[in-house]
């Protein structure tokens, strides 16, 4: 192959991610031309409603998959947390890259911690998962919808529309906005979304030529952890918009996975731990434990 085309969303973060992979591919494969195909997706265009009301985070992926299916692009770069647990049968995640810091971050011009925020203070997030975990511990805060790209969200904070907002550490760091982080939230305070902080590179399953070129970008440890996290999501419905957190680490060849499911109001938060060497089984084990505690009823109430 002499040329690869990467489909990407147009946001600055998505472009950073695509350009990062573009540079890595050029470094690994001298002489290979790598171009970007920036695209707008429905997930970027619908900003007045939460994602769970309009079709989920798969809205960020569909147009990019269409571009690969019709030959305009060879691959797409995603934040793994935006990729549904079940891909269309003709597509595959060919590589998952080494993970950036997976934690959520508090960004505020006034408060250094969630505990400092007084009753009635306004906290912005687009994530049911983040909102539920905040409501569990800080029931007096007013949690309001916050959509848009990272810069738009930070600008709304700076205009005083919110007292604080929650964003992913990884996105802020990648955009050079790490200094805006007042405090990363511990995994106990806010368990991340499955795959948070990792990039996934998607292509058509039939494109063995592309998969071979992408293989060198894969990080085996991150991939094992992310597979376990996504297995929890898949077992419980597969939607990226569920108030579901999952995070795994690899220790001495064993996966240690933490997972949770929450009601939207944060009044019910179910937690599970699972360990083992097989990512799919570890994820399934955690999902079974959550189901035994009543996860189906909790998630069913959201529909």
Our count of helices gives 11
Secondary-structure content class: alpha/beta
Q: What is the number of beta strands? A: 13
CATH architecture of the largest domain: 3-Layer(aba) Sandwich
CATH level 4 superfamily of the largest domain = Periplasmic binding protein-like II
H-E string: EHEHHHEEEEHEHEHEEHHEEEHH
Shape, per Cα inertia axes: globular
Instruction: Sketch the major β-sheet.
Output: 5 strands, mixed
Tally of domains: 3
Mean pLDDT: 93
Strand order of the largest sheet: 2-1-3-10-4
- What is the level 1 CATH name of the largest domain? Alpha Beta
Oligomeric grouping of the chains: single chain
- In percent, how helical is the residue content? 25-40%
Terminal CA distance:
46 Å
The Cα radius of gyration reads 19 Å
Question: What percentage of amino acids are in beta strands?
Answer: 25-35%
Unreliable stretches covering 5 or more consecutive residues: none
User: Could you name the CATH topology of the largest domain?
Assistant: D-Maltodextrin-Binding Protein, domain 2
Overview in brief:
This protein is α/β, with parallel strands linked by helices. The chain is 33% helix and 25% strand.
In words, what does this structure look like?
With 303 residues, this protein is α/β, with parallel strands linked by helices. The protein folds into three domains: 3-97 and 198-218, Periplasmic binding protein-like II (D-Maltodextrin-Binding Protein, domain 2, 3-Layer(aba) Sandwich), CATH 3.40.190.10; 104-184, Periplasmic binding protein-like II (D-Maltodextrin-Binding Protein, domain 2), CATH 3.40.190.10; 234-300, Porphobilinogen deaminase, C-terminal domain (Double Stranded RNA Binding Domain, 2-Layer Sandwich), CATH 3.30.160.40. 33% of the residues lie in helices and 25% in strands. Strand 1 (3-9), helix 1 and strand 2 (33-39) form a beta-alpha-beta unit. Helix 9 (220-235) packs parallel to helix 10. The model has no long low-confidence stretch (mean pLDDT 93).
